[in-house]
Design brief:
Layout (H helix, E strand, L loop, with lengths): L9 E3 H10 L5 E6 L2 H15 L5 H4 E5 L5 H9 L8 E6 L10 H13 L7 E8 L11 H6 L4 E5 L4 H14 L6 H10 L4 H15 L6 H7 L3 H14 L3 H15 L2 H23 L4 H8 L3 H11 L4 H18 L6 H11 L6
Parallel strand pairs: 1-6, 2-5, 2-6, 3-4, 4-5
């Protein structure tokens, strides 16, 4: 189907999957989102549908969007496919699609924008752009929306629960490891919703459990909760002094749980842990010591050690005091807890190194 034969809409991954299954494939696609693994799987659906394995190397052209130039892209699109009706030209990590780019990126974007309506009928041009954080949306990106006249915009966001669990189950099956239904659901709820991370977590659990069955206790041991990830991200933004974004994450956490006291306690505990790690590092402790003391996987300890290095000992002490003060205020009746949480985040800017 030619891109000019139908109205192009912003679609999610599940709608896109159904379109590909029906054979409704057009000449232009832009994938965007945080989950690069899900994006790659989506692109692979087109490749499998349109290019046979024997001719794949000749008819799948991959171009690095970070170092691309327009002549290379146009030549790849214009060259006829070899022993196939279609060819796929993939521009991966197309950072020229971000709202603000350098002069070279802006020029490349403008050249592609002029050309995209004239793509040969035998070429499927696919681009993907990875969002910088979870607050980015394709409908707020002027460059992407401007191209929606000529290409289908596929937003790779979170899958619906049943599809999400099924897809994770399929990954376990592909890797030759059985997992019980109860454990699969528990794993799906606990793991961070990103298939690049999910695949690494699955590999870790398979390696840890070896030939025995996977238990919930294994999942608890090896995977931190998504709420802990949110708190980690929030503290990282505090370290970067990006308080507006930290407030956005705080609102997202409260939207999911609406538990202000639990949230302030979690932030306080996180700062306390960073403080303990900071002191430990100053005493000469290594990652192996923290794995034993905290009973956490190595990669988690390494992340926490890295984050603790972004703060001074004095900063962490003052941030803990700030959390205690905010928690005390929140226990008073008639206090706007959401506002107090915002005040806490704003006041972190006053804590000096």
């Amino acid at each position: 189907m030619n891109i000019l034969e139908r109205k192009i809409d912003l679609i999610n991954y599940e709608v896109y999957e159904k379109e590909i299954e029906k054979g409704n494939i057009i000449n232009g696609y832009i994938f965007c989102g945080l989950d690069e693994e899900l994006i790659k799987e989506g692109i692979n659906l087109i490749v499998k549908k349109e290019i046979n394995d024997e001719a794949k190397e000749l008819n799948l052209i991959k171009i690095d969007g970070m170092n691309a130039n327009f002549d290379t892209i146009m030549n790849a699109c214009e060259t006829m496919p070899f022993m196939s009706e279609k060819k796929v030209v993939l521009i991966y990590r197309a950072n020229f699609l971000q709202d603000k780019s350098d002069s070279a990126g802006t020029k490349l974007y403008n050249d592609i924008k002029k050309y995209i309506s004239n793509i040969p009928p035998y070429t499927i041009l696919v681009m993907y752009y990875l969002f910088k954080d979870k607050r980015e949306r394709p409908n707020k990106n002027k460059k992407i929306t401007a191209l929606s006249k000529f290409a289908s915009i596929v937003y790779c966001d979170k899958l619906k629960k049943d599809r999400y669990i099924k897809k994770i189950g399929e990954i376990f099956k592909e890797k030759g490891k059985a997992i019980g239904r109860t454990e699969l659901i528990y794993f799906s709820e606990k793991v961070h919703n990103n298939f690049d991370i999910i695949k690494r977590e699955i590999d870790k659990i398979i390696s840890y459990c070896e030939d025995r069955e996977i238990k919930k206790s294994d999942i608890d041991l090896l995977i931190s909760s998504s709420n802990e990830d949110d708190i980690f991200d929030l503290v990282e933004l505090i370290a970067q002094r990006k308080i507006d974004k930290a407030i956005d994450i705080a609102k997202e956490i409260l939207y999911k749980s609406d538990q202000h006291m639990l949230m302030i306690s979690a932030i306080q505990r996180h700062f306390l842990r960073l403080y303990e790690i900071k002191l430990g590092v100053l005493q000469g402790k290594r990652v192996e010591n923290f794995i034993s003391e905290l009973r956490l996987p190595q990669f988690v300890c390494e992340k926490l050690m890295g984050q603790s290095s972004r703060f001074t000992e004095k900063q962490l002490t003052e941030l803990i005091k700030l959390c205690v003060s905010t928690e005390t205020k929140m226990k008073s009746t008639g206090i706007d807890k959401t506002m107090e949480m915002e005040f806490l985040l704003i006041n972190t800017l006053t804590v000096k190194k």
